[in-house]
Structures
1.
Amino acid sequence: MTDEQQAPPESAVATSRGRSSAPARALLRTAAVMGLFLLGVAVIWEGFKALFGDPWRYPQLGIDFRPPFHLLQAADLQLPHVWDIVGALANPVQRSAAQSLGQFLVGAAIFTWWEALIGFVIGALVGVVLATLFVHSRLAERAFVPYVIASQTIPIVALAPLIVVGLGRGIVSIVFIAVYLTFFPVTIAEVRGLRSPDPRSLELMRSYAASRWSIFWKVRLPASVPYLFSALKIAATASVVGTIIGEDPGGASEGLGRAIVNFNQQYITGPEKLWATILVASLLGMAFYLVVRMIEVIALRGRRVAQA
Amino acid sequence: MSVLRSGMGAGAVPSGAPVSLSGVGKTFQTSGGGRTVALENIDLDVQPTEFISLIGPSGCGKSTLLRIVGDLIEPSTGTVQVNGKPARRARLDRDYGMVFQAPVLFEWRSVEANVRLPLEVMGVDKGTREQRVHDMLELVELGAFKKHYPHQLSGGMQQRVAIARALCFQPALLLMDEPFGALDEMTRERLNIEVLRIWQQTGTTILFVTHSIPEAVFLSTRVVVMSARPGRISEVISIDLPQPRNDQTRESERYFELVTQVRESLRGRGAAASAARARAEGGIG
Amino acid sequence: MTASAGTLSPSDRGPSVVRGLLTVAWRYLPPTVVLVAVLIAWELSAAGTGRRVIPAPSAILAALGTERDLLLASAQATIYEAIGGLAIGTVAGTAVAFATSRWAGTRAILLPLAVGASAVPLIAIAPILNNWFGVLDPFSKMMMAALLVFFPITVNVTRGLVQVQPAALELMRSYASSEVEVLLKVRVPNMLPFFFTALKVSTTLAFIGAIVGEFYGGTSDVLGRVVLTEISGGSFDVAWAAILLGAVGAIASYVAVTLAERAVIPWYAALRGDER
């Protein structure tokens, strides 16, 4: 490796100004990216409608705009304006209900959040335990890892209705689906992480006559944390997805998944409601991701933090 | 060696000195908003078929200088002439080949496909391509491995493939940036003899950056000693060891003398440095 | 470094054969034992009583026979949706990736979109896609699959096109290569392993997209709807048979991609050694 410093004009690694601000800034960067995502989607959305949608008629603002082309998918019924969707949050959830759509959806989101969270945490624990087992027992690994890998190729989510029938309607089956979707990526990534330490660090520990357990705690587990978190970020979304899909067959009347099915059935009478539910579900997914990211940033404090 | 066609590196008849640097300097903007002067006031003329080593401590800009000659970096000041043309023209005319410290072979190509790469880019016809690749691999003695993939070869072998690739279009000039830095001592010594053999056989001019004093002395006709911060040429030492050089050369008296001379120069106690100091002490009251 | 397999002398033959058998056994026996044990336990625990939520493996296989026409037609339809979506998503993702690698400005727009999209439960849009493209039209399920596939493909192909050794770019520059040459000779080969990794993940995503899209509505002869219908009718064995076919379809696609990978980039498999 040449130690000649080329003094390159662009440096590949962002140097952190202060040790304490780096985690906060990394988190803010992720949040900013999410914000940009929402903004970008909104811009593309309205741009699409401006080209292909129904006429924009806002007499109060003096706007009477006819888009040049027309596509069914951009019509106001199929793709309501962003402001109509957000505005619908203030309207009553049903014609004569006291609760606003926004209140209803927040309640549903909280319900879904807790299901997803429980499933996620249990799934992550199961994943780490399995990974630990596989790393310490070659036999267990050879026996079970092929199925862990094969199962990643199976559309597990298709099992959702059956799981619900098997475990009964209710929160247990929904959480089960979330656990199922979470623990596979975690197991695979954690195994890789537990095996990642430089063999020389392991040799060092052995020269101290350290026990396997001690090696696990002091070397393997800390080394696996970055791998674990990259899987957890994927698993976070998978957990939310599993929860939402499981709620309909699972008969959970209070979650976002249920709301999606209901509002889909009532689509003609109020397309904004379904869209608003999708918006809230997206925000839920992002919030989940941000929470995991925040924990990651704290756990990896001092180490180099990955971008976004 | 087969006869060169024009447009494939001006290896046959270089016009003007292979490398001519005049007042070359390079300043980098650092990310903190400051400026680093990597090179200052470099003057150097390289004659055809010379073997020039650039040696100096870290930060003396030797790799930067090599890349300036290759038009991979633009100098901030001064002029660079390669084969009598501006450096950019020389690059576009493919007048030089380059070997880096890492072999930089493409893992998706076999050894012979890797050597073929520049010829493909330069649009050489298939027949000549095949012949060239064959000749080059014979030259570096890796003909038996042409169907192998880089990851199947040792570091030293990969570097030899990189050398074959650099020479396949017969450039007049070869730029080498610490090509043997990552290899062990014995492989390095063996490859040094290889490079000299190839140098003699092809008549290429070589500009060679190294960290190793013995290597610089063993290989070169002249050693350019550089100093750091800012990067400058402190001394140019002629190596008058006889050719061809071999393992016996490494044990000769003259070799040790020259190694010591270069080492002293690097430490700032060389002839040029002493003269400069004497001037400074005598001059200013 | 490949181990040299020299010729065996007669005196070596005995122990080597044993050693070879032991290697095979060590590798394949444990998972096989697990599979067989699970199947046997499953069969035994489910034997006897009529309709159960998790029927015996034998009952599932029987259902494959009795409802063969429905199941095969449904499997065909769902596979068509999944593969169609996979193709659309892959082509679109690759095209966008090439565009962003060429124009760095677009990458600044794409990166937040990709990161955001990875955090969002895209599947929630399935009902909308059914509305847009017709709930009975397979195209709506294809679009769900394509949407799920698009992002991993784009991110990975972009990464492969952009993350090239700087020294390789310097090398091409020293040959005065054009941008197109650098693209074809360096970036594209570099990208292929990333592409295939993403494609393997995408096969599963495509099937998920198709089947979940069907959960929200579709014709009666697609696997997702068959599962729901048969469950509500109490015929769990048929439902499981449908899921089994879905799983087989997904695994077959995955294997097909792996074989394609081995054909297109043989050097990559060798590079990674015998990593499964």
2.
Amino acid sequence: MAAVKTSSNTTVISDTTDREILFTRIFDAPREMVFEAWTNPRHLTNWWGPRGFSTTIHEMDVRPGGVWRLVMRGPDGRDYDNRLVFVEVVKPERLVYKHEAEPGSEYATYETTVTFAAAGNRTNLTMRMLFSSAEERERIVSTYKAIEGGNQTLDRLKDYLAGKTPTELELTRIFDAPRELVFKAWTDSARLKQWWGPRNFTNPVCEIDVRPGGAIRIDMRAPDGVVYPMTGVFQEVVEPERIVFLSGALNKNGEPMFDVSNRITFTEEGGKTRLTLRATVSNITPEAAPHLAGMNQGWNQSLDRLEAEVIEKAAVLTITRVFDAPKGLVWKAFTEAERLKHWWGPKGFTMLVCEVDLRPGGVFLYSMKAPDGNVMWGKWVYRTIVAAERMVTVVSFCDEKGNILRHPMSATWPLEVLNAMTLAEREGKTTMTLYAIPVNATAEECATFAGGQDSMKKGYAATLDQLDAYLAHLAHLGQTPRVENQS
Amino acid sequence: MTDQLSATFGALADPTRRAILARLSSGEASVTELAKPFEMSMPAISKHLKVLEHAGLIARGREAQWRPCRIEAAPLKDVAGWVENYRQFWEQSFDRLDEYLQELKGKEKNHGRRKNK
């Protein structure tokens, strides 16, 4: 143990060498990637903890004050709960986090500082664990073998970064379209070409021979012009349920950088389609590291594009308008409460409530007063938001609490309508395209319906209660109620 | 009714099925005739027809051996009615948006500055 060094002629505010543990390592990877491996749960679970330990991340909010909860399971099956709080997050340079032990627990409270220093394409990493006292340090070192554990953890990180640990990715998406349609988007090369790859990528080559043993060749072209070739082979094709294929990413010289086993399953769920993608990466070469670090984001962007492609095909209604304004302005008009107030709804209606929570899962809730004084409520739930480009929302009528209501009198008005809006600017004008698909009937709703008579009666009573709302709604559509239908 | 409605819209959310309906709007057709323009296997086309039949959008003849398919107009009319209403709903809003955007652009010019996109 180092003694406390004090000196009268240097200004050492506090010397902590006796109550800290210091680790240093050099990793053969850029610091951005090492930082990513340390802060992204998907990476972290592949290497965190001493040899033989597995880790589950329950929460990881990487920002100052953010909580990080994880459970490490030892080779003997014992669980170690960890609760940490981020103190400093400077991407990709430094992380400081505190291990907070509950009062009276055997764990220690201590602070860890990790610095990621760039050394060309490599990273000099320093990890410093600072305890409250030398005694506490000693206790943790002897009880938990902290030094050995720390070294093993960093060894595992090194292996992980070097691609020696196979990585796995699982993503799930629900598409508001029939299963055949989603399946076809994967198996028809003209369709695949439209959405494959991250945002703004194109696919100059897209050849697929969709049958077991059939070959795959896709050249992805990045916005900067770099081409990323991929080859593969189909292993299983079960229409419209499942596709399994092996793929390999090639480097500039046409040599494989890593192999991926992809399994895509399509499940029908009440008229919608659940897609599950499981990709297992193996035979990873060091140059593949940056590609793999971006794999999750890349797939998510690709699935966003698939969603757009599927919605376009499934839409029962398409509206195209050209606005004489730049798309930034049109986007603002679509997304800012103060601006939505000015135009959303027909002429003569006034917006009373207008609340916008612009984020996936967020809601735009509004109420409007018709010229005859009736008030109606509606909402949009945001699904996908790509600023100034694309927005997917689910639109419905509702009450003031946002509970979805059926159109009071029209049995042919769907409960919810999915709207996908895209903006494209040319010479200062913006072309807006709106695709609409009715997506009504949630699983619960089907259950209610199957429940039979009682719910039907309730539904009828509710219908009468909402007659006023219906009349307001017809006015909203600029229609006069057709009296002959009601007699 | 809810069940029927979602079946109808679900059936229409597929371009192949919409194309089948478009073909049937010009008269009855057999499964073989329907399959021709789509380069599809018979089982695949039969699956689409089943979905359309379940949704009440088509009916299949029982009398003739080739069981001709024909379009059922009523549910389609409902859908067409909704589509038209929904279109108007948005078109009216977009008319207002158009005016509002012009107003905004005018304001910016008056202030002699251009906002960032």
3.
Amino acid sequence: MKKTLDFIKSLIKHRDKAISKKMKHLHPYDVAQIFGQFNQTERNYLYNNLMPIQLADILSYLDTVHTINYLKEIGTDKSVPILEEMSSDDITDILNEIDDEDFRAILSKFSSESQIELAYLRKYGEDQVGAIMTTNYIAVENELDVKEAMKILIQEAEDSETIDPIYITDNGKLTGMLKLVDLIIARSPKKIKELADDKIVYVNVDDNAADAVAKMDNYGLSVLPVIDQEKMVGIITIDDALDVMEKEETETYGQFAAVTIDDDNILKGTLRRIPWLLILLILGIFVSSIISVYEDFLRQVTALIFFQTLVLDMVGNISTQSLAVSIRHLVRDDLNTGRKIFKHLFKELKVSFINAAICGLMAFAVALLMLTIKHVDNKTMIALVVALSVLVSQIAGGLLGASIPIIFAKIKIDPALASGPLITTLNDVVAVVVYFSLAAVLLNLV
Amino acid sequence: MNKDIIKEIIEMAEIQSDPRIICDWLKQYHPYEIAEAFTELPEDIRLSLYQAFTNEDLAEIISYIEPEKAADFFEEVANRQIAGIIEEMASDDATDILNNLDDDKRQAIINLLDQETRTDIENLALYSEDDAGSMMTTNYLTVESGKDVKDIMREIVRNAPEAETINTTFVIDKGGKLLGSLDLKKIIITKSPCPVDNIMDINFRYGNVDDNKEDIIKMIQNYDIDVLPVLEKGILKGIITGDDAMDSLVEEAEEDYARLGGLTESEELDEPTMISVKKRLPWLAILLIMNAFVAIIISAFDFLFTYESLTVLVIFQPIILNMAGNSGTQTLAITIQKITKKQLDNKNKIRKHLGKETIHGLSLGLTFGLLAFFLSAAILFLAKDFSIPVFKVSFIVAVSILISLTVANLSGALIPITFDKMKIDPAAASGPFITTVIDIIAILIYFTLATVLIYLQL
């Protein structure tokens, strides 16, 4: 990293005229990493001496906000050739972030064909396929002869993100694809449509980007074609898919703990956590009021106090496990039929039952041991209350954790949010009611 | 869509005695869809399909099935046929499945493989699971230095069916040393005669077989690499493709996620019940033991409850514990993500992160301590039990929330960082684990305050 920086700085210092050529062996990602460490003069030298494509490559590895700042330094006129070298998804990211006035100013410098394309791409929100696709792909019409297709391929190869597979269209409508190898070995005269593979997986331009990426993962594709009302409009490539995937994973992970991962600003971070804790506090008061109903039991058998936390915690724990499993299945779209949901819930019930039985036994041993040491009267019965409470409420907790996210998904609420206060509180209520009811029955409390 | 395929296959099997016809009909679907249907079919139909499909077709279908599941299917197939299928698969996929078979069966199958496949698989088996070597495939295209572009074209056409990708061809010397890489686009637009050395990219990125998997994935992501060559002492040994990186990324994320939820490993939808039990029970058992400590601590304070009016403390206990536990879990999730993304790789950043989380905890603690003070005072006042020292109890609840939230946020950040320093996977600190640690601390704070402020003054 330091080496790259020193190397470029010395080139600039010596006003090296061959800087563009000498920087060619550097990977634009590495240059992007250190780009912020150049001063204004150094940057200006780079802007003036590198080729537009080099600048385009470097800038597309930077965060969009930074890219826009640098483009402003470069100025509208000089920005256009750079933008023209970028792939369409990177341009869209940039154009989505700048304000309308700048957008129009820059747009007007493009060719009218590009103008239409960019205006089209700008329509899509960042979580839609349209925002992550690129329009640099190769499609050939199915009536063409293989020789003509090969000619188009050779002409367009340079500007295309990938040339294998080649997509086949019928008046713009996506009808199939063609492995490059098949095109190479085909002998003219032969029409493209005779070689077409019509088993084609595609997505719509307004589909959810994360779903599209999941599709690529499932089907093991490195390129996925995008259509808009049957017409082919772009492709998603694996490198863009990886970025979406990573962002999505981070989000799911954060949502499970009901938190946004990148809260760098302390005040913002605090504020973001407040609503969630506030709900928890209010629901907590509700749990407290239920316990207060049973306060008399606690006075009669103080030993019940010792184990209340154990029962509540153990229910929470088993529930969190089931919840994590269910959310994961939902995110991967594993639970797409009623049968699968039923099978999954039934399995959760079995798993919870076995684990609850084992935890119940352990809890019995722990409680009995403690009560014996403390010389508490009626120790076997109290230990039995603890054990049965763990058993019964853990089964309930496991089922709640497994089913609530599924219900949330059904009524179209983000299931990852279910992990929060609602399940915690429901678990607590179940555990408290079971615990004190069993105590009332087994210990003859009134 | 999936559901329909299954139904149709079953219906067809009932009227159609020749499974080959079902096979031909199935070929209109993508192998991934067939693979999905495969796992749901009754065993007898599946068995007849194994006979009707070619090994090449089966290899393709099976490569879309999770390795654990695929290994289960292999229990249904004769070893000789399995060997035939394995020979048609990409070497990394084959290795994954073989690793899920028991030792005897695996060895029996390996003995039946042709020499080339066996060498590939035995070589891949040498690498540890965390190494780049274990995720690479050996089905790639090479051309020797000095050859003409036309020769590459021939090589591509001949080997394309087996190659994982034809987007990149690697130029090697006689000893297998990697000299450069050739982009398919460049090959297509270059006119023969032209030696490959003139157009190859000598500035390629590469990994080494013993590089860490995560570093390799990061590299593929950062540099937008389609195909990464993997070397051992300069010799080309295999490639890792973008979709391999995607699989690994998902796998890693699933592990982290599962651990946050207190599972030892992530679970598959249709794995047997006892396997799931095994993945969940270890943490539950540990947590139960930890909770026994919580019980012991509470029982140590049993003198408090000899005063009937003080059982009221128990009522507010879940509020304090839930808030501290959940806030701690949030910090935990953030910290683990930061560690995974290498954003906490020096002392300065760690100190800054710990400081920030402590401030978070303090400000949340102040806010909610204050709120809880008024709420609990209101509740106690409404209860009209005049034996309860309303002000003092509310004060204790409030101060406990303040301190517990601060400590919870600090430990949510500190514990995974400490784990990481001790070379324990920070993701091992699960949400439930942190919650229980925080419970112990919060209860100590709560009851100690009660002892000092109420009990000792009675």
4.
Amino acid sequence: MKSSRRKFIKAAGTAAGALVLSSAVRPFNVLLMAADPPPDEGPWWGIGIDIHKCIGCGLCARGCKVENKVPDEPFYFRTWVEQYAILNNGEIKIESPNGGIDGFKQSIPEEDIFKTFFVPKMCNHCSKSPCTQVCPVGATYESPDGVNLVDETYCIGCGYCVQACPYGCRYIHPVKKVVDKCTLCYHRLKKGLAPACMEVCPTRARIFGDLRDPESEIVQFLRENDYNVLKPHLNTGSKLFYNGLTTEIS
Amino acid sequence: MPAQLNRILLLFIAFIGLFLLVRHFLIPETFGQYGHYRGNSLIENESRELAFADKEDCYACHPDILETLESEMHAGLSCLICHGPGGAHVEDPMIGNIKKESGREFCGRCHDINPARPGDVVFQIDIQNHHTEKSDCIECHNPHALWEVPE
């Protein structure tokens, strides 16, 4: 009995030590909220969204549907805008009529509102992404430049990744029957163009840039703003940084 | 070793060999090139068609309009916001898929009063009750030169 307890303590100590050591091998990147750049060369894309600048015009969501031929039905989105309203009684109301594509009409009387703002949502392009980890066939992956992409010819449409994404950024394409998601307009990115949602954003509330380049727009954004990521406790290594993200937003 | 064990062992080896052979032919060539995925998928994602053009493309043929625009409140806005994706028009200027979006509905997307809209970012007006005798905003307001409002 005594020796087995000793064994147990020894084993537990070893395990704890190994955990501490392994965390030193890949430390938590405080600067980027757990997003760790792999030791490659070239750009590593990150996104910045300024909630204070979003006017809720919904042009990003509309532009994205056109650029990427996303089905018209109001439940297929690669990007969408939510309106948060914190009422005087403490209730939080979140609205996103048709993803914000047709703009927003105020539905709650103004005198009941304590505070209200728009939050654009899109794929976080996580560097430790749950969706990639659950794919059973290697059809979804993180590209060397930090964009989470889908191999449409390889996807079997099982929907594990749709469930795994904590941000709800994936859907099964009703015609192709495979998963579809934001590619950060990879086809534009590679030609040196901005993603469609950022091209049409009238207030430059959305920006993107190379996280490895200290002069890039996104690094500038991180320097100047009080940024945070959605659901940081999940340690997804999200590369979508928000300015003005408050605790009500999930 | 008994003969039946030898046979089972042989069967195992044959089975594993067959598996490796089939696997070799089933796995695409570029799988594992960068990671646990098909490397060519990157190229496929990259080669999709563009719908939206680039503002620089508009400059090439319409520098006069852009010069007016750049000196105005709407400077920095992409042409594609009001004029549609326009990718096909850039490829072939004879394709007139250029829209002219205007009106209370469209202008109101940005300019209608909404408490969630930050006031210092965009000019807001009660768009449904503003000059109701006019049908379209562009009757008075030129989106390229905003402050030239006729009497």
